[in-house]
Design a protein that fits this description.
Residues 206-281 form the GHMP kinase C-terminal domain. 39% of the residues lie in helices and 26% in strands. It has 297 residues and is of the alpha+beta class. Bound molecules: L-homoserine.
Length: 297
């Protein structure tokens, strides 16, 4: 018996909520098909061209499944076939989808033996292999869906945040920004006045989601700590942000650690207008790009 799941791309941080907020997308998604095998080992097949290592210990999917096998005393194993559509290094949660998809699929075969929180714990081993840090702001929305707040990771405290319907427009300029580098360049200390602005925005954003207050969501999508440092790595960033807002977006910023940029809009018409703006900017700059117009999953 095998089971197939779609592991969605995710947008981490949501501008002001560095390492604590994230949302799941309807597109792009990775496909994972898994079955239980008698031998206590992990076999991985990749149906994609990203040259990802197949040894389970070196593969993000494999590490997450090995963490699950540890919890099951290695009584049996898993055979996994992965088709990735979320490009590694895009900032759209590719490694989180690789880590979360296999354990979610395996858990379905096991009759939901583990809780979602257990699955996040296992998937975080995969995320650590990919980015060097055990952050859960992509993994949690990938597993729970919707918008999630990671209030804490020790111990894990995940809260699903209700939100009004919104469209997400994404552009992935084809440049490389490694999450580890994008974390390395951040300042280790924050000024109190910046911290005050930041927690005002985070609280405003969460309140805006819960109250379905689009205006409040829009004005809370501001980051005075991380974005000024990271945006330097992304050509066209300031133009995309400013012109997307002129085109009707509520706001947005860097998706995860970049290089993708995301914008939230109230309706599809605005989301499509934002896509046109993004395309124009990268055509002019002369960098290859992909765009997506999608909704929250
Ligand atoms: N919160 C993480 C970061 C997400 O911004 O470094 C990385 O995808």
């Amino acid at each position: 018996d095998s089971i197939k799941v779609h592991a969605p791309g995710t947008v981490a941080n949501l501008v002001c909520g560095f390492d604590i907020l994230g949302l799941a997308l309807n597109e792009p998604c990775d496909e994972m098909e898994i079955k239980i095998i008698e031998e206590p080992k992990v076999i991985i097949h990749h149906n994609d061209n990203y040259n990802l290592p197949l040894e389970p210990e070196k593969n993000v999917c494999g590490v997450a499944l090995l963490a699950m096998m540890d919890k099951l005393d290695h009584k049996f194993g898993f055979e996994l076939t992965v088709t990735k559509h979320i490009k590694p290094g895009s900032g759209i949660g590719s490694s989180a989808a690789s880590a979360a998809g296999p354990v979610v699929a395996a858990n379905k075969l096991l009759g939901n033996y583990f809780s979602n929180e257990d699955l996040v714990q296992m998937a975080m081993f995969g995320e650590k292999l990919a980015s060097g840090v055990k952050h859960a702001d992509n993994i949690a929305p990938c597993i729970y869906g919707g918008i999630t707040l990671i209030r804490a990771i020790h111990p894990l405290d995940i809260i699903s945040i209700p939100a009004p319907p919104m469209y997400v427009t994404l552009v992935h300029p084809q440049i490389e920004v490694k999450t580890s580098d994008a974390r390395q360049i951040l300042k280790k200390q924050v000024l109190l006045k910046d911290a005050i602005k930041q927690w005002g925005n985070i609280a405003g954003l969460v309140a805006g989601f819960i109250k379905s207050d689009y205006e409040l969501i829009g004005r809370s999508l501001e980051d005075v700590i991380i974005e000024p440092v990271r945006s330097i790595l992304i050509p066209g960033f300031d133009d995309v942000k400013a012109q997307s807002k002129e085109a009707g977006a509520l706001g947005g910023g860097i998706s995860g650690s970049g290089p993708s940029i995301f914008m939230l809009s109230k309706n599809e018409k605005e989301a499509r207008a934002v896509e046109v703006v993004m395309k124009d900017i990268y055509e002019k700059i002369g960098i290859e790009y992909y765009t997506y117009v999608t909704t929250i999953n």
